[in-house]
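Predict structure. Chain length: 239.
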Amino acid sequence: RIMIKDLLNILNEQEITAFGGSPFHLQFIAMAGKERLPSLKWAMSSGDHLRPAVIDQLMEKFDDLELHVVYGMAELGGRFCELPTEALSEKKGSVGYPISGFEIAIRRDDGSHCEANEIGNIYVTGLLEFKGYFANPEANAKVIGPLGFLNGDKGYFDETGYLFLSGRSDAVFKRSGLKVSAQVINDAIMELSSIKDVYVSSEENDAEGRVPIAYVCWEHEQDLAAPDITRALRKLIPV
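Prediction complete.
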């Protein structure tokens, strides 16, 4: 396995002009910037959504980078959704529209369609129809049905039909009867300048069902107390 430092060194030494990887890789490319990767002209983030803060950093550090954001998984032929490059600024954080040959539906647990901005289960149908996992009928029964392929992610369409991801199914939970996305909280915390990395999950609470819990890695030293983070998040997360 190539470590991030080694990957950046290879990209630089080999004068690589185009690179495709996960949002994790693109985060470190953004941190490195054009000064360390002067040859890089084209980059693609694949597999999950790319955080708005990383897109901003890439655009700031590279003045001539062509950036592509795609969403996909092996079961659906790799990529089945793409964010148009011209929509990067306006729709940061989105994974765009399904590509030709695919359709995506956001549905509630009862199978009914969600409204705009309502988080639900992502179902995919299309030309590259997934037939099932080898010798695993239990897994197949969970993801394949008349509504299409249940890919395990949660998300929502905005008013203009752009798809936004809210995390895996187990990363969306109910607190006091309201749906909460660990992914949305994770992205908001990463907007704070003192945070280097964070992992957001949930835990059981006797009074509220499940509550979010964050494990934070500080950029330098802890200079924000928990109440400070909470106050800052109120401005970043819609209630």
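Summary: The helical segments are 4-13, 23-36, 52-61, 137-143, 182-190, 226-236.
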